[in-house]
Design a protein that fits this description.
It is built from nine helices and five strands; from the N terminus they run βββααββααααααα. It starts with a strand and ends with a helix. It is 56% helix and 12% strand. It has a five-stranded antiparallel beta sheet with strand order 1-2-5-4-3, sandwiched between helices. The chain is of the alpha+beta class and 337 residues long. Strand 1 and strand 2 form a beta hairpin. The chain has one domain.
């Protein structure tokens, strides 16, 4: 299944996050921290141990599965741009992000400036932006004022922050498709038109695939245990994605751009689904809260996204199941060769 990026209590990509703002692999709620943002100064920190471990893992991946390293590079750029969209629009809305990282787990390298840490962590499976105050009552650490939080921003600012990530992915996909056409010698106007058409086709195809799966779960599950049964729809595991990445890179720049566009567009489209902990769910909450305040004429109306935690867990379970089942099917295909 295509890897994804999403916005949450920290905006994030990679391991899914609950509405409160921690990755599932860590805590599920925000908690005060002893870190206090410092203004003006530049601070650099690094961990030689974890840097060595991270570099060694990349070298091993490059040695045993070089196409996997290529796929990681594609996804890294997609996730970086996604999170950068969240970061830029959060600041424009008056929020104060405190972390912008590629990866999860132990910190490898970081630069701190004006209260925000930028860097890399040891597990290269996504990225995130940390923004405090994603719920109406979550506590704040020392150095973060209420005015710096997500919940204090306007509803328009929240929507822009949340939607910036997936929309940047979709725009970048359209640009990649158009550039691929120009590499093939197509004129600018026609290339842009083709890029927009291909972007829409990927979005529609992703939605159609998810709908087919949702309306025929039984047939899909049955095909996993019965190799003779064809599934109603197939999703690509990282194994198949890596193999295809290697093939398109060998095919040249135009094909590489098209594959990059497909990945970027699919990640953006999936993140727009109104299911927690994806970006679409946060957008629906922000819009719904504003509508509630307007219709009830009560600016104090708030919706606590923690109520959606059971749905978030269910969404994560479904996504993990799809990923594992896709891997099983790909392994079955390899065994059948």
């Amino acid at each position: 299944m295509v890897g994804r990026s999403h916005f949450s209590g920290s905006t994030n990509s990679g391991p899914a996050r609950l509405p409160e703002g921690r990755s599932v692999t860590s805590a599920a709620t925000e908690a005060p921290t002893t870190h206090s943002p410092r203004q003006g100064a530049w601070t650099v920190s690094a961990s030689p141990l974890w840097a060595t471990a991270a570099i060694a893992s990349l070298l091993c991946l490059g040695f045993w599965a070089p196409t996997g390293l290529l796929l990681l590079a594609f996804v890294a750029l997609i996730v970086f741009v996604h999170e950068l969209g969240h970061l830029v629009f959060a600041r424009r809305a008056g929020m104060r992000p405190t972390e912008f990282f590629w990866g999860f787990g132990p910190e490898v390298f970081a630069v701190e400036h004006n209260g925000c840490r930028y860097g890399f962590k040891a597990i290269f499976l996504g990225g995130y932006v940390k923004i405090w105050g994603m719920t109406p009552t979550s506590p704040l650490p020392e150095g973060i004022d209420e005015a710096d939080t997500y919940r204090s921003a306007s509803h328009g600012g929240r929507l822009a922050t949340i939607l910036a990530g997936p929309m940047v992915n979709i725009v970048m996909a359209a640009m990649a498709f158009a550039l691929a056409e120009m590499v093939d010698g197509v004129g600018f106007v026609e290339a842009v038109q083709t890029g927009l058409t291909m972007t829409w086709e990927v979005i529609a195809g992703t939605a159609q695939a998810l709908w087919i799966w949702a309306t025929n779960v039984g047939g899909y599950v049955g095909s996993i245990f019965n190799e003779q049964s064809e599934p109603p729809v197939r999703f690509m595991s990282p194994v198949a994605q890596a193999e295809l990445t290697g093939q398109v890179v060998e095919s040249g720049l135009a094909m590489s751009l098209r594959w990059f566009g497909i990945l970027s567009c699919a990640i953006g489209a999936i993140n727009l689904l109104p299911l927690p902990p994806l970006d679409g769910a946060h957008a629906v909450v922000a819009a719904g809260e504003k509508l509630g305040q307007v219709f009830r004429r009560d600016p104090s109306v708030r919706f606590d996204v923690r109520r959606l935690e059971p749905v978030a867990y269910l969404t994560l379970a479904v996504l993990i199941t799809l990923s594992v089942s896709a891997l099983v099917m790909d392994i079955q295909d390899l065994r059948g060769l």
